[in-house]
Specification:
single chain; mainly alpha; MetI-like fold; 10 helices
Amino acid sequence: MGTTSSRLPASRPLHGHTTLLSARQWWGAGLLALLLAFAWLVPWLVDADPARQQLSRILQAPSLAEPFGTDHLGRSMLARMAAAIRLSLGMALLSVATAAIPGVLLGVVAGWRGGWTDRLLGSVADACLALPGLLLVLLLAAIAPGNFWTLYVGISLVLWIEYFRVVRARTQALVTSPQIEASRLLGFGPVMLFRRHLWPELAPQVFTLAAFGAASAILAMAALGFVSVGLRPPTAELGLMMIELLPYYHEAPWAMAQPIFVLFVVVLSLNLLAGKDPR
């Protein structure tokens, strides 16, 4: 007699998905790797505190001593750019992980069970969608302004809905597939079916949503910082740096351009890594 695993129908992709990254995604991964290397190597290679003020070195142009120059308070732009990238990617990773876990689990439950469970969870998601995402984050930021954890909770509450909707729709389409029907007839439970059949199909879409969600989280944090309702000085955050350097645009355009360029590259790398929109 064969083992349990040998009796389970093969877990080959149901619709021909491939695990290989496209050329576009490799470009995104390469850009993201460069950003990560820059953000984490700078503190080891350069002895510069992103919050240390040197008023005798205000708005210095890039030089050998300060490759990225200094800001309006004499702080090292090199150190601040590296710190801002670490903060943005850290927030994005934390928010995406917190949103993905309940979003995927609730989406699978709704799609698998159907009936009143699907209607109830769908109604909760629709109610959350009734309030614009950025407005929800703004409301939470107004309760505790300048707090990292408030932004994290608000962004996570917005992101989970996309995981839920995409995973629920995909699960509803997959549960009637011949492979899953055959596995059910053999007596295998939901956990085994999820691990063997559902997750291999859902994983590429969850990965794509995670990359898009990370880009959205970074843009949201930068937007809140730019309108002065996000994090507070002297935090090195891209949106906050833009609004701080805006009055010095004519005097030091290279300083103002740096957070804008970094934000563009970070979001571009994540969008390239995401590939196609799964919706």
